[in-house]
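re: ur msg from earlier - yeah i can do the zinc ion complex, just paste it... oh wait u already did. ok heres what im feeding in:
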Amino acid sequence: MFQDLDIRYDNAWRRAEPSADSVALIRREDGILAELTDGRLAFPRFGQLSPAARGLEWRYAFTLGEETYFLAQWEEGTGPETADRLPDAPHPAQCAHRGSFPQGGRLWWVQSKEYRNLGPKDAVFAAAVSESLHRWYGATRFCGRCGKPMTDSDTERARVCPDCGLTVYPKICPAVIVAVTHGDRLLLTKYQGRAFKRYALVAGFAEIGESIEDTVRREVLEETGLRVKNLRYYKSQPWVFTDSLLFGFRCELEGSDEITIQQSELSEAGWYRREEIPGDYSGISLTGEMIERFKNGMDD
Ligand SMILES: [Zn+2]
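and the outut:
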């Protein structure tokens, strides 16, 4: 999966200023500034940026291996004086329309749907994590309680309201991915009304006050009308594209195998034998990995 890196990811907060060698992650609403060479994503170094771009507000983001990454962002509606400080780069749509990515040597605003299947893994991971941080910093510009501008904490990764004291930490939403089996059959679903058209597993967010195991039982029941038993935790995946932390569970059908689809969530749900499961799953998602494991008989 995309977060399985060969190098160390250290996201402990620290007070730091970018140096010339620091990796520069510049984001705006519709993308991250990056070079694209032969399907590989690369970010500029802080020292390569124009003086104007270096003048953006920079925050320490994380360290990958020996490289330190810093994040700067531009928010819609903060005024043309800020927009003018951004490096000159085409909009991502301009490269998407070409049908293939351009050669290196220039910077593009690249969206997650364009970079998530590129390489190398550490760059894709950095871009995805920065997207989540960017969203969080952008959503905490003002205090949700009293409306005053918020500032960064001096001691941890948090946003603080100087007026009323509200402290807000990065938002991570727990969610489940559930592989329900019945003998040699796996329950596969298709989402209703989404761009993602391939088969998926039952999935959903935890509600306030419920355990993650209860989330598994509730989501399966809501989406398919089925009951499950023998829940076994498989592994987790930080799905930073939607600020989620996914908990993969396997479980077995209990009782009737008759499916009642929740029409608002799913367009399709059914039982599939190993040999009937299509094999085309990208290597980045926990859903894909769990489906492949079952298909290949590795689910025990
Ligand atoms: Zn406040």
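cool cool. The two ends are 20 Å apart (CA to CA). ping me if u need the other ligands too
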